[in-house]
Each structure stands twice: as structure tokens, then as C-alpha cells.
Amino acid sequence: MTECMLGGLAGLGVRVIPVTSRSSMTWPHVLGEGVQLPLRTDRTLPRVLVDGLHRVWPQATRMDADVWLYPKGFLPWLNTGGLPAVAVVHDAIVAHYATHYPAYMGRATTAYLERALTHALRHATTVVTVSEHARQELNRFAERSRLRVRDIRVGYAASDYETLLGTEPSHVAKRDCVVHLAATAPHKQTLGLLEHWQVLEDRGMDLPELLLVGSIARDARRLADRLRTVRVLDSLPERQFRRTLAEARALVMASEVEGFGLPILEGYYLGTPGLYPAETAMDEYMAPVSSHGRFERGDVDDFAHALERTLGRSSQEVFQDACSLRRRYSRAQLAERLREALVAAS
Predict the structure, then answer these.
(1) pTM of whole model > 0.70?
(2) C-alpha distance from residue 99 to each of 95, 105, 189 (Å)
(3) Tens of pLDDT along 139-175?
(4) What is the CATH number of the domain that holds 15?
(5) Looking at the structure, do residues 324 and 340 belong to the same domain, yes or no?
(6) Fewer CB within 10 Å: N-end or C-end of the chain?
(7) How many beta carbons lie within 10 A of that of residue 53, not counting itself?
């Protein structure tokens, strides 16, 4: 997502100078040379130092810039140089965890992330988020934290997968399977999906194979091992995952909350329609295009009906929806919204 944003800005002629750590990803060549700080950010203490102090680092203070852009919303604790800052804040999921799963991340981590979110909302010149659903959650968080409620812009998200969508439906042969991006994080609801799947198995419903890709918690693993139509794949390399998703008949997201829910969009670009819970960001951005995959979370009958509707769709229907999604949530449109936010901030 960050690479997509910065590459899109560079494509509009915006000069982007990436500031990275020694463990950061490699940025696209279109961004040119950047500033690399001498610490890694894949460990807790160095990450906190870089998050909080990077604007006073000598290499960073010498940059000739007009505005700072924070694609993940982590503003530094020390702001110097007087430059405005645009923060892309994807969600308020940390507040969801503080309320519903206070023990999952630990008290210290939760407190740190809540403070970082508060700091971003209080000090960013402009805040951009990725859906109206996320904007409402951020405003609620601001009100609870007694912050001045600012105008938070909605930029929506985009994916480089859009380049994989051709001029006609994909001819990738479909297998009788659906994919779920499994996760140990409780808001992803991998266990809840498996409980639905168990009910449908017990009813004798003709189900495709459910492929769980990613990490899986112990209780979810125990249930998955008991189900005859479920297979756990753990993590897959990017190319293999992309192929697996393209061959699947559907992608199932079961999350309680998402800032955007990018995998549904990416699945469509690969010719694979998605199932997603009602009243989420995924429901929001899919609503103008298609509601075939929408289901009420916690309602196994509604989930079964959504599964049947989705599996019954033709490749031509899915392709038409994918084209509509690309028009609405393209990388070019995201870059233009970010450029507008940068101009407004500066």
C-alpha cells in the first residue's frame, strides 16, 4: 500500500524522498535516492527511536522538502523544521482492541499505539484515511479522547494488482476451493469462519475446499484439523499466493473491522470474487458495484446464501465488477487525492 501511494505520487510528478531504516523495503526506482537512517525498525526499541526522532536525524534535517508525508500515520514525537505533515491513518483498530481484546497486544503496546494515534490526529496538518468507515471510527476515537475533531479526508485505497486486470476475463482454470487469509489476530475472525464452516459441513452442504493461508491460532488449528473440507497452507510466497488466489472460486474475509480490506479488491483483479461482512469498509466500497458477497456476521444462514451467490457468478460478471472497482479505486485516483492533501497542507 505504501509503495503504491508513493509510486503513484511520483507518477504525478511529485518529488518524493523516501526516508527509510536499514530494514525497510526497497522502494521503486521512480522515487530516486532517499535517506536511510542507520537503525533497523524490525525490533521494538529501534522502531520507537526511529518513529519518534527521525526528523531530528542529521540526514533528515538537511532535506529540501515542502511537506512530510507519513503513509502509516506514525508522526514523530519531536517535530522540527516547521514543515507541515500529512498523515495517512488507515484505521482505529487499536481502539477496537482496547475495548474488545485488551489482553491480546498487551497493555504497553496498546497504550503506545493509542498514544501514537492520538499524536497523529492532534498534530498532523492534514489527515487522510482509506474509507468513510475508517473516518467515522477515527472521529469517534477523537471524541472519546477529547481531541479537536478535524476534517479527515477520505482517499480510499488502491493496489498495484490493478495492472493484472486485462481487457477480458481471466482464463486461469478455477479449482473447487475458496481462500481465507488466516490470522491469529482476533478481529480477523478466522475461528468464527471455521465455526460457520463446521455448521455447514454438519448440514451436509456441498462445500468447496476452504484453504487457510497464513498464521492460525491454536484453537482455530484444532478445529480446522477436524473439518474434512479445510486445509491449512500457512504462508505462501507472493507469486504462489497470487496464483492460488487466482485459481480460487472466492476469497472469504470475515473481519470484524478493517480500514479498507484490500484483499477483496485484489481478489477481483485476479478474477476471484469476495465474501465480506456487512457494515464494514469492504461493504462500503463494494456497495456501488455488487452486493453478492455481503453477509451478516454471526448469521450462518446468511453466510451460506452469500457463498452460494458468489460461487454461482460467471467470470464475465466478476470481470465487469473488477473493471468498475478499478475505475473507482485506482492508484491514479489515490495519488491525486494524496497530492491534493499535500497541496492543502503546504
Answers:
(1) yes
(2) 6, 12, 16
(3) 999 999 999 877 799 999 999 999 999 888 888 899 9
(4) 3.40.50.2000
(5) no
(6) C
(7) 16
